[in-house]
């Protein structure tokens, strides 16, 4: 038998299904020169160069799906690249919660594994690799292959049927994968069309205003649509006195305005029956439009289901059913028995709440209400109402009361107080998670709920809690509450289903438990109904699809009436087919018009989707959308002339050019929409174009003129650039166009329009640069693809330029620590890099925070080359950097040449097990203290370096330079000092000391040995030969003979001396004592009274205290310093760095020491007077002339100057006011003949030593004196030389 070729096999199979013409008979040879459109049709998804239509309804067999797509001038999807595969699977992941099976164009005709993408032309088919990772059995063990093939019909399907390739969600791979399926089942499918063919896709969708011309959009005739569904109500019976009514509100749109009715829904003998509510028959009901109000609601009468309907001339629509319930909280039991708990063990105290509806919240009071129990790491109030203790303490004894509060109203109930006693014992309960935990609230979670996962464990000390999801990332918006015992998931979704692990840790270890979260879903429509405006006599298919867990069931309504075979007239039954989510009506007529509703329901609720059916019959008309009178096009460009008449049935379109039939060609094409596409446009295409639309009811025409102009041309474009953040950038764009065309520029960033007035950092140029875009202070947000759009009325051009912003990297994310089995103090960190921001990352900085050191510290800096990357996750080992007995959290910073990123989010906690201390104490020393004691001090270990509980210290000591054994002393707790008794005879003796830290896990290393001296004894002798001599009128200099440097005398280390002094007329008890911490045998006592006798004694000092006091000596201070100050002070210029100073002398009184001389005190302006220098002038030096030269001054500097007298009593008062002067020097004279003399500029002012706020503003004036040789000097020269200007 001659083997068949592959094409013949496929042809025979296709013929079997009646599709020969679709595969081989209807492909056309069409050549396309340019894209006519860059957009996809409505409801199609665009990715790269293709448009995709995901068809949920109608579900068809594989051959029917192929026909459906071909009728749209498309194909079933063929996957050509990994990027396309990612796009398709991501769309399915995000938008198909039903996890349906979706047909593609893949087919295996011989069931032999020879898979092909079967696109329109058999010559374009290409093979599908059996090793492609998209297959469902990729990376699946052979034993599991059968379990991942989800279509059991394949087992019994005949080989001649072949196999189709479909997308299906693999529960093993947790991803959308390809799977082989039988081709004869109805399934959703995916169509694909190239973007350049998108304009060929016919637009079969008719809007609700089709065939209607109205000026007000609100008055378009339409059937009612429910805009606001009524909500369930719970009536609070406790507030009847203030609000004795409840209501339901229903809002519908439509024109004419709909009328509302409300029905009470009852179930009788398993049949749903609706009863009209007539407010005229029951005064308790009032209705205003769609709002129904029930007055004085009664539980027996009014509890149940209600439904609203809205009606106008086009039909009736139903709302979903709502329920009226009554809220209440019952009463607690009157008494409770006492409860006994066991110390150091976990315990639970049940609430025993009363009955209630709806939910309540719980609290516990202790000893008195409202003294509420505060939750902490040890005490937990669960949403089940019970009070839990991780371990019991004696402080937990007391009386307790459970309190409940309704979630629906401000009402609560309190239970009885009862005693809780604690039985003492010393054994500690083991760490364990209670068998009823983890648990979920609400018990049956539904998508949209706020879900709480609770975990509780007993153990001593109170454990720490962590949560993780075993597969996938944590839900969006999750948070931890109540010391991490509760994982809160807001607005939970079905994708949050899965296994969640709670781990608890304390010093006893770590235990964990897993909770499987299963989310139920109320029905929600993923394929809703929409209005259908169809031709008379056409077949109509309504298809809806809803998702829900548990699975949904469907019912159909027409104009508010249930639609089933029992209610359809006998003569009409043959035209109707009801098949779950699909309603088929054959050959529709006017009687079929109305509102059709699909109801999806499960035990959690119902959902309704509505669509209006309108049957049309009308001749073609261009009244609403005539062809534009003038259509402009650019030579060489593309143009589409729209032809969109309204007609029913669909008209035949014919185009006329300049009164003659328009010949079609690959360049001039009639699109599936009826539009005319010309690409490229020639100047000869200019002329008159008429679209003629006809059906059996009539003909209509519309005419327009095509004008061909020279289109825009982009002459200057920018090149891609990399710009550091903070710098400026210029994106260039310049174009020209036909002079009669208005040309404008606009900019887009990453496909989105740039609104320049909203961003002051963006601006455009002017004149010939009006197409330029200037960006000031570039930031990361400015990076991306900049598209310059050049627009004229007839054509639009664009050019895209890439601008990358360079700066520090974006922070890493998803930091996950993992332990190193071989090294408990090491950690493996994994993370995902942030954006590189234009530069390669060079370094990663690891920072850590612990429970004992709650500040972020740098752990290490790691070169990027030392890290590894696996599946886009970067990892690195941080070896031996962690401290035992710490709970770490890590964060990572990335760095490049422009700096560090901001820190990443903190990682989950990472526990390091306990271990002995890893380092010795530092700053070991000591000395001093009580006589006969060796005092040892050190810096204790901080909490984060203690490595385990039970910290203490061990002191090792022995006499220095001895061969005796080492003695030990233990110190409990984290102390910093220890005192060791060594005996009274051990005075100031050296000891060799070492200290080590210890904890519950063992001993740490010893510190380096240091020498510490035992305590000292006070000195045994007093200084001798004490004498005092006057220093000035207020000070005495005291001296003495030093004590010998002998341990027998000093009994320790000499720290200095204390000098005791008192006036002769004082009691010795009133004496002053001054410490002089030096080893000198002299001291100066200041602040004494002039010409007064003082007694002075001296004591030696060591760390033990003062030695004996010496015999007192007597000394007298001098008389006072001069009280007067010199007057008549004058300052005159002398040469370029010298001034002459003179003054009048002073006299001293009987209480003053005789004058011994004068001091000229001077300092720079701006300096403090303490920085002054003195020129000391004894009387014998002056020889009666109160005059001196002050030299060494700096030209250009300003000075202050004062004069004072001095004696043995000290310095007298300084002259006043202060003299201020500046030496000004000019060198403009001729150096050959003329010399230069400075002129001193001075000012007198009241001077304050600590501030210059009284200085006058002085404009310095320089005099330049010109003179000749010495023989030419006149008698007036001295006057000019000594000029002094006082301001």
From TrEMBL:
Residues 224-325, 351-412, 438-512, 523-609, 620-706, 712-798 form the Ig-like domain. It holds the Pfam family Ig_3. CDD domains: FN3. Residues 808-915, 916-1017, 1022-1120, 1125-1227 form the Fibronectin type-III domain. It is found in: Cell membrane. Residues 47-192 form the C-type lectin domain. GO terms for biological process: cell-cell adhesion. GO terms for cellular component: plasma membrane. Keywords: Cell adhesion, Cell membrane, Disulfide bond, Glycoprotein, Immunoglobulin domain, Membrane, Repeat, Signal. This is Contactin. It comes from Hypsibius exemplaris (Freshwater tardigrade).
């Amino acid at each position: 038998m001659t083997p068949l070729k592959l094409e013949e096999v496929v042809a025979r199979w296709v013929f079997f299904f009646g599709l020969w013409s679709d595969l081989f008979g209807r492909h056309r040879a069409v050549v396309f020169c340019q894209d006519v459109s860059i957009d996809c049709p409505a409801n199609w998804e665009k990715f790269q160069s293709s448009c995709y239509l995901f068809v949920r309804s109608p579900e068809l067999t594989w051959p029917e799906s192929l026909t459906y797509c071909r009728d749209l001038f498309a194909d079933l999807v063929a996957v050509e690249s990994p990027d396309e595969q990612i796009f398709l699977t991501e769309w399915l992941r995000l938008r198909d919660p039903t996890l349906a099976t979706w047909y593609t164009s893949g087919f295996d005709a011989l069931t032999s594994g020879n898979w092909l993408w079967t696109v329109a032309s058999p010559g374009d088919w290409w093979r599908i690799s059996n090793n492609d990772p998209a297959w469902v059995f990729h990376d699946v063990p052979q034993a599991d292959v059968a379990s991942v093939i989800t279509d059991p019909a394949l087992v019994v399907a005949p080989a001649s049927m072949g196999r189709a390739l479909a997308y299906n969600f693999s529960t093993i791979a947790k991803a959308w994968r390809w799977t082989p399926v039988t081709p004869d089942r109805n399934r959703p499918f995916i169509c694909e069309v190239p973007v350049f063919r998108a304009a060929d896709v016919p637009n079969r969708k008719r809007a609700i205003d089709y065939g209607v011309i109205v000026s007000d959009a609100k008055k378009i005739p339409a059937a009612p649509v429910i805009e606001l569904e009524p909500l369930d109500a719970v009536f609070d019976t406790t507030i009847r006195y203030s609000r004795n009514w409840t209501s339901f509100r229903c809002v519908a749109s439509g024109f004419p305005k709909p009328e509302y009715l409300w029905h009470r829904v009852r179930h009788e003998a398993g049949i749903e029956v609706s009863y009209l509510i007539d407010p005229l028959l029951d005064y308790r009901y009032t209705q205003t439009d769609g709002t129904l109000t029930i007055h004085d609601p009664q539980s027996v009468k009014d509890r149940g289901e209600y439904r609203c309907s809205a009606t106008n001339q086009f039909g009736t629509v139903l709302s979903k059913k709502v329920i009226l319930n009554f809220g209440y909280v019952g009463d607690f039991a009157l008494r409770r028995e006492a409860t006994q708990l066991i110390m150091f063990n976990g315990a639970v105290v049940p609430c025993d709440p009363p009955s209630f509806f709806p939910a309540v919240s719980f609290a516990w009071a202790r000893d008195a209400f409202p003294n509420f129990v505060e939750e902490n790491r040890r005490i937990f109030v669960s949403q089940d109402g019970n009070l839990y203790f991780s371990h019991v303490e004696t402080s937990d004894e007391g009386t307790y009361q459970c309190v409940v509060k309704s979630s629906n109203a401000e009402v609560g109930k309190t239970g009885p107080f009862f005693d809780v006693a604690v039985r003492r014992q010393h054994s500690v309960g083991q760490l364990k998670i209670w068998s009823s935990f983890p648990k979920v609230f609400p018990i049956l979670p539904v998508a949209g709920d706020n879900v709480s996962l609770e975990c509780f464990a007993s153990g001593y000390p109170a454990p720490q809690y962590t949560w993780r999801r075993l597969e996938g990332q944590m839900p969006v918006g999750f948070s931890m509450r109540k010391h991490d015992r509760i994982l809160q998931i807001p607005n939970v979704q079905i994708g949050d289903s899965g296994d969640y692990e709670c781990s608890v840790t304390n010093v006893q270890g770590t235990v964990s438990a897993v909770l499987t979260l299963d989310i139920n879903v109320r029905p929600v429509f993923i394929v809703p109904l929409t209005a259908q405006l169809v031709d008379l006599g056409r077949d109509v298919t309504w298809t809806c699809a809803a998702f829900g867990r548990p699975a949904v069931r469907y019912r159909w309504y027409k104009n508010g009436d249930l639609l089933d075979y029992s209610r359809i007239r006998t003569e009409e039954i043959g035209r109707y087919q009801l098949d779950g989510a699909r309603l088929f009506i054959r050959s529709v007529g006017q009687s079929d018009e109305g509102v059709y509703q699909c109801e999806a329901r499960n035990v959690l609720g119902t959902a309704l989707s509505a669509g209006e059916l309108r049957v049309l019959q009308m001749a073609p008309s261009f009244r609403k959308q005539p062809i534009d009178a003038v259509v402009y096009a650019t030579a060489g460009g593309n143009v589409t002339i729209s032809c969109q008449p309204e007609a029913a049935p669909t008209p035949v379109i014919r185009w006329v050019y300049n009164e003659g039939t328009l010949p079609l060609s690959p360049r001039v094409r009639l699109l599936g929409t009826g539009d005319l596409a010309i690409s490229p446009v020639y100047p000869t295409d200019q002329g008159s174009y008429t679209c003629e639309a006809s059906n059996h009811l009539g003909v209509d025409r519309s005419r327009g003129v095509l004008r061909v102009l020279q289109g825009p041309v982009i002459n200057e474009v920018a090149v891609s650039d990399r710009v550091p953040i903070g710098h400026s950038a210029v994106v260039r764009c310049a174009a020209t166009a036909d002079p009669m065309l208005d040309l404008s520029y606009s900019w887009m960033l990453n496909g989105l329009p740039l609104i320049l007035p909203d961003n002051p950092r963006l601006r455009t140029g002017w004149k010939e640069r009006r197409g330029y875009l200037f960006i000031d202070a570039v930031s990361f947000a400015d990076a991306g693809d900049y598209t310059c759009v050049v627009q004229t009325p007839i054509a639009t051009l664009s050019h895209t330029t890439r601008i990358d912003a360079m700066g520090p990297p974006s922070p890493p994310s998803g930091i996950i620590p993992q332990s190193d089995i071989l090294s408990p103090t090491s950690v493996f960190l994994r993370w995902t890099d942030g954006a590189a921001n234009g530069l390669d990352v060079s370094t990663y900085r690891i920072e850590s925070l612990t429970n004992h050191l709650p500040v972020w510290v740098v752990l290490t800096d790691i070169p990027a080359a030392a890290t590894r990357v696996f599946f886009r996750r970067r990892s690195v080992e941080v070896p031996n950097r962690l401290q035992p007995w710490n709970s770490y959290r890590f964060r990572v910073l990335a760095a490049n040449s422009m700096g560090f990123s901001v820190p990443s989010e903190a990682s989950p906690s990472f526990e390091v097990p306990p271990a002995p201390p890893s380092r010795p104490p530092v700053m070991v020393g000591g000395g001093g203290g009580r006589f006969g004691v060796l005092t040892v001090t050190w810096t204790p270990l901080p909490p984060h370096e203690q490595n385990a509980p039970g910290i203490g210290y061990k002191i090792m000591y022995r006499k220095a330079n001895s061969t005796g054994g080492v003695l030990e002393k233990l110190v409990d707790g984290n102390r910093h000092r220890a005192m060791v008794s060594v005996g009274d005879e051990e005075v100031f003796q050296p000891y060799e000391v070492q200290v080590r830290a210890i904890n519950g896990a063992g001993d740490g290393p010893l510190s380096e040995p240091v020498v510490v001296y035992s305590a000292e004894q006070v000195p045994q002798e007093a200084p001798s030969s004490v004498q005092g001599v006057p220093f000035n009128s207020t000070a005495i200099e005291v001296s003495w003979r030093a004590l010998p440097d002998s341990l027998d005398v000093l009994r320790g280390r000499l720290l200095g001396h204390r000098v005791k002094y008192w006036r002769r007329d004082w009691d010795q008890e009133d004496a002053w004592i001054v410490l002089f911490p030096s080893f000198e045998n002299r001291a100066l006592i200041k602040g004494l009274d002039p010409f007064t006798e003082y007694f002075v004694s001296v004591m030696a000092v060591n760390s033990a205290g003062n030695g004996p006091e010496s015999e007192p000596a007597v000394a007298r201070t001098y008389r006072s310093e001069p009280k007067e100050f010199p007057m008549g002070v004058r300052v005159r210029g002398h040469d370029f760095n010298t001034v002459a100073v003179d003054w009048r002398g002073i006299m001293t009184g009987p209480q003053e020491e005789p004058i011994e001389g004068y001091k000229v005190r001077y300092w720079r302006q701006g300096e403090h007077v303490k920085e002054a220098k003195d020129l000391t002038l004894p009387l014998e030096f002056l020889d009666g002339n109160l005059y001196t030269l002050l030299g060494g001054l700096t030209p250009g500097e300003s000075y202050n100057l004062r004069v004072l007298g001095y004696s043995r009593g000290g310095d007298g008062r300084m002259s006043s006011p202060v003299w201020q002067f500046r030496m000004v020097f000019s060198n403009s004279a001729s150096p050959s003949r003329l010399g230069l003399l400075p002129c001193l500029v001075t000012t007198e002012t009241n001077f304050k030593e600590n501030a210059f706020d009284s200085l006058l503003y002085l404009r310095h004036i320089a005099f330049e004196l010109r003179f000749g040789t010495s023989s030419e000097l006149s008698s007036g020269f001295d006057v000019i030389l000594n000029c002094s200007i006082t301001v």
